[in-house]
Amino acid sequence: MSIRTAILDDEPLALDILNDYVAKTASLELVLASTDPFEVLQMVQEGKVDLLLLDIQMPELTGIQFMKIVKEQCRIILTTAYTEYAMDGYEYNVVDYLLKPIPYHRFCMAIDKLSPNEDTPVIGASDDFIFVKSGYKTLKLLLKDIVYIKSDSDYIAYYLTDGSKVLSLDNLKDLQDKLPGSFYRVHKSYMINLEHITSIERNRITTCLQNIIPVGDRYKEAFFKRIQS
């Protein structure tokens, strides 16, 4: 079930960016993006919003005032350019506090905090596919469609043959034990599907997506022995 998401921000550019982030996050469904706090307030009070991405500094009704009105009628992630309101956010039990400009990976980390349980992000695997927990959804990924996997801070990204990517809380070390031998660790931050390598030049791998993946010194010897065998 998708998370019904509304965005309230008095800056049209910020609305556009968050709108784009919501659109490419599988677990979210955008129900409203608006600069009008009273339009959003009505939807929240009608029970049509599960999650609100809320700016703080707005001329008609501040984010703090908005939270005082809605109380716990929906989950809230604060989006702001100001650090001084962080304590107010914790007082109202917000999901997260995002400082602008907000990178997409940080946005995804906030969405992952909405997860209703603590299941392992990779729930199951077979010779042909894996089930991956991404936000509220559990996605089935065909192994043949995964080009490479990249670790970044607290999450990993699965890059797929169609150019899309799936984000999940996990780590490469655990994945090494769950994925078949066609997936090989080539760097502290990268695992690659050997089937999608198009060329190797020195310590650089080119994939079918035309991405360049570095081969780390720690993994170099084992990797080249692997492909030579």
Automatic annotation (TrEMBL):
**What residue stretches are annotated with the HTH LytTR-type domain?**
130-202
Has UniProt tagged this entry with the keyword Metal-binding? no
Give the Response regulatory domain ranges.
4-115
SUPFAM superfamilies membership: CheY-like
One Pfam annotation, family name?
LytTR
Q: A single Gene Ontology molecular function, please?
A: phosphorelay response regulator activity
Q: Which Gene3D superfamilies match?
A: 3.40.50.2300, LytTr DNA-binding domain
Spell out which residues are annotated as carrying 4-aspartylphosphate.
55
The record's annotation in InterPro entries points to: CheY-like_superfamily, LytR-like, LytTR_DNA-bd_dom, Sig_transdc_resp-reg_receiver
List the keywords (alphabetical). Phosphoprotein
Superkingdom, according to UniProt?
Bacteria
Q: What is this protein called?
A: Uncharacterized protein
